[in-house]
Amino acid sequence: MGQISSDLASENVVCENEIKLELYSTTRKSIMEKLEILTDAAKYDVACTSSGVNRKGNGRDMGNCLAAGICHSFSSDGRCISLLKILMSNECVYDCKYCINRRSNDVPRATFTPEEICELTMNFYKRNYIEGFFLSSGIVNNPNDTMERIYQTLYLLRNVYRFRGYVHVKGIPGADPVLIQQTGYLADRMSVNLELPTAEGLEKLAPNKHRKSILKPMRQIQNGIAQGKQELALYKSAPSFVPAGQSTQMIIGATPESDYQIMSVAESLYDKFALKRVFYSAYVGVNEDKALPAVTTASPLLREHRLYQADWLLRYYSFRVNELLNEKHQNFNILLDPKCDWALRHLEQFPVEINKADYTTLLRVPGIGVKSAQRICKARKSSALGFDNLKKIGVVLKRALYFITCNGKMMYHTKIDEDYITRNLLSEHEKLPFDKDGMTYKQLSLFDDGMENAAMFGMAHEGKGTAYV
Ligand code: SF4
Prior knowledge:
By secondary structure, the protein is of the alpha/beta class.
């Protein structure tokens, strides 16, 4: 008995020493070591964006912001680069099944202090590597503690370091609304991740998260934005609240929802929460778990690409989800982009006469984007347009030619037949934003060959599906 208790006692001492050692090693990590861990840990979060707000430098503080986007560059997987994107901490107390940083995984851990994040941001900014930053975090101790650290970081950055560049941070579900409110006055954009398209999926894969506690801060931010706009209209000096709007992210392919379900959720988020962007993140298998697809399952990047294209159609082309998909037709055609696919299923609406069709009708023609539709409407006021004019305007004729007439004539004598047009469109080879072998997933890192492609440090994006015609 005595032997057992002394064994236990010595085991406890060993344990305590191990814990102390672990804490010591965590606190002793250099900023570069932490940066390596926490930029890598942040790579699965795609809900970040670099643009959306205009703010000039004031000659006194540091930095400015451009709504048109900032020093974008494209990585090998098609992502557009502009922000320093880091996790504040990956010492997370939650155990989301799909996440590399979940509590039960044995991975290197680190936590930045608010001061360290500010130092990093300012140093990168001064070297012109970045023009803003995106800060997310695992749950350190509890949601309030995490949100408070994010708030402190922003407070320091804005008020002590006088940084006026673009800042996008996470709203932490379950955190005190006062903390979210105060953070909203310092951030340009906030995002609360929906994580999975349905409440059932969330329950299954993220047992510590709940749909209601995710939607609550989303609603709070929406109301704050609306109220902030009203106040700004009344008083010029009113502080702005999340001026670049809020976004969210859903993981695609970890749970069995169809494209129809996913896009319906996205549409409802745009309608009911006035979101600026919904991001779709193709599931990347990093953990073995029977509730998840096998780790060897390819990441559904082409599906993710189709969802971004469809999202674009909802936001800029006045499409509704029910027009693109329905109960019978639940998933997008992998071979054709959603607009071409829709047009082929609605051939009765074509051909469209370029010199007469209204703006909304023009937008629905494959090969005509927002800019070219606007240019057509403007240019045809002075004279009737022909195919040569359309080419100069930027219409992609090799796609549009099956669906339009100019002055009553088609470009070539061509059949308006679904099979015939489909074959021709397929032979055209759509340019996809990733390797031809398709299902590879590569994320930029500050520390590996991604840097060559990035041309600079920093790595967030908003480039997906941005040029849709
Ligand atoms: S909250 Fe979930 S998704 Fe976020 S870091 Fe923790 S385990 Fe990962």
